Each structure stands twice: as C-alpha cells, then as structure tokens.
C-alpha cells in the first residue's frame, strides 16, 4: 500500500471528532491528505485538541452544524482559502429508534435534517470548488457519503433511520450520474457500515436498555455479534481503509457505487 497516495489532496470530514469520522480523518491524514474536520464541539475543547494532535500539522477544525446553510457557506469559503477540496466525507449523523407510532414529527425531522439535509447541503456547497479541485488530480475529486446497512435493509423500530440512510444511498447515486454525464471531475460513492463500535452505537444500545429490551448494553453487543456472520462488531478503523480507497485514484472508475462493510450481515 502506498501511504502517500493522497499527498497534496485537501479533505473535509464532517462529524470528524469521534467514531467513524475520526478514524477516516486519521487514515486520510496518514495517506498524505491535509484534513479539516468539522463537528459541534467548541474549538477550544479537549476533544478538538486531541484530534488535531493526532491528525498532524496540516489539520484544522471548523465548528459547524451540518443542517445550517450559513455554516456550509462558511465551510466552503474556508476550504477555498485552504486551496480547494478534493475529498468530502459526509459522515455526520444521528440515530432514532422506536415503534413508528411512537415517533414524534419533531424527532423525524431532526434525523432527516442531520442525516439527509446535511449531506445535500454539504454537496451543494462544495461542488463548485470540488469541480475545480478535481480537475487537478488523477481520479478526480471524491464525495464519500456515509450511509449504513440500514440504508439497504429494513430493521424493526429503526424506520426513521432506515429512511434517512436509504435517502443518502440514492442521493449519492443521483449526483454520481449527474456529475458523470456532465463530465464533472467528481465521483460520489456511499459507504454502508454494519455494526461498529462507536459512541453513537453505545448510546443507542443504552437507550434500548433503558426501554427494557436488555439488562445491559453488553447483552445487545453479544446479540449483534451472534447475528453477524463473522461473529464480531467492526472497529472504526475498518471503515477508514475503504474510505481512503474511495478517496484515491485507485477508485477512479467507481462512482455511484455502494461499498458494504458489514461482516457479512446483508449477505444473509
């Protein structure tokens, strides 16, 4: 593996302070990219300092809400000032569980705003800059939208999350075809993780425990592992390599594809 295959490329990873986002950002930086991460934490927080220290001297942090048009306009301006944007990882997301008849409209709209609007707004804001940046590098610019296996198959009491991640999957295909037919040097692909050990998953499991579905989160982890063909959950770093591949010229003929990383879950 050539660890400098992203040398000279500028990347933005949303939701980049923890979990899958931080793992992807770290991998992109290790392969030579200058990485900017965005999240909701204050710029002077310990989490930001720790992440930037791990990402290296070229790294930067932008506090941004992915549901805000104004924040995305600011991000686009700051990325342009940095010299462009070759890689956009729309990773920021949240979850929502519960029987459909118990879900509030406000909760539905919140998950759609973060998981779907955020991907749309980020794409729309950065496409002009990415079209210019993509013309400079082999394989073009790369948009990587983090969906989920729940964007491929249904699952009980996660209908809102299913809907949001399914929207990300097809939005990605739509823009991929659009850019390709216009001969814009931007590829767009989606990542579909299975169950990954992240703070978001842990919080979700705790909510299931609070609802009485299990005695402790570890019981739910064991159940998920038992239902996964390879018998374990993924680590965030196992999503980072596939993301770096999609970001690189090694994936120059991939656009509109869905890369499933789920330990065999959806193969059943």
Automatic annotation (TrEMBL):
Keywords: Oxidoreductase. The keyword Repeat does not apply. The keyword Ribosomal protein does not apply. InterPro entries: NAD(P)-bd_dom_sf, Sc_DH/Rdtase_CS, SDR_fam. Belongs to the short-chain dehydrogenases/reductases (SDR) family. This is NAD(P)-dependent dehydrogenase (Short-subunit alcohol dehydrogenase family). It comes from Novosphingobium capsulatum.
């Amino acid at each position: 593996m050539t660890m400098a295959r992203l040398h000279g490329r500028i990347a933005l990873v949303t939701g980049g302070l923890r979990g899958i986002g931080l793992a992807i950002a770290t991998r992109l930086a290790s392969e030579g990219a200058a990485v900017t991460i965005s999240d909701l934490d204050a710029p002077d927080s310990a989490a930001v300092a720790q992440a930037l220290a791990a990402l290296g001297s070229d790294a930067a942090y932008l506090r941004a809400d992915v549901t805000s048009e104004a924040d995305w306009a600011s991000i686009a301006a700051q990325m342009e000032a940095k010299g462009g944007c070759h890689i956009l990882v729309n990773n920021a997301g949240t979850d929502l569980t519960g029987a459909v008849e118990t879900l509030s409209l406000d909760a539905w709209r919140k998950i759609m705003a973060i998981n779907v609007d955020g991907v749309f707004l980020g794409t729309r804001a950065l496409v002009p800059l990415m079209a210019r940046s993509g013309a400079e590098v082999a394989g073009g610019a790369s948009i990587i939208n983090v969906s989920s296996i729940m964007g491929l198959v249904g699952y009980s009491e996660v209908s809102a999350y299913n809907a949001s991640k399914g929207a990300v999957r097809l939005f990605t295909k739509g823009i991929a075809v659009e850019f390709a037919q216009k001969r814009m040097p931007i590829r767009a692909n989606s990542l579909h993780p299975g169950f990954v050990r992240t703070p978001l998953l842990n919080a979700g499991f705790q909510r299931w425990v609070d609802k009485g579905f299990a005695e402790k989160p570890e019981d739910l982890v064991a159940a998920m592992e038992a239902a996964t063909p390879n018998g374990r959950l993924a680590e965030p770093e196992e999503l980072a390599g596939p993301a770096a591949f999609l970001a690189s010229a090694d994936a120059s003929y991939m656009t509109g594809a869905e890369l499933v990383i789920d330990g065999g879950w959806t193969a059943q």
